[in-house]
Amino acid sequence: MKRIMCPKCGCLVEYNDKTVWEGNREFEDVNCPNCGEHLDRVFIDGSPNERIVNENNT
Length: 58
Description:
The chain is mostly beta strands. The protein has strands spanning 2-5, 12-15, 26-31, 38-44, 51-54. Strand 3 (26-31) and strand 4 (38-44) form a beta hairpin. The radius of gyration is 12 Å and the shape is elongated.
């Protein structure tokens, strides 16, 4: 799992960046579940399954 801070809303977002199968991988965008900001792009065989770990309360 990888974590990244959203530059737009400040939420800490966790997502899967690991591949289980070496074949059938594609580039998938990682977007903030709170505001939709593009955060990263991963080469993975499934979905990154983004989730908020900690919301910015400011």
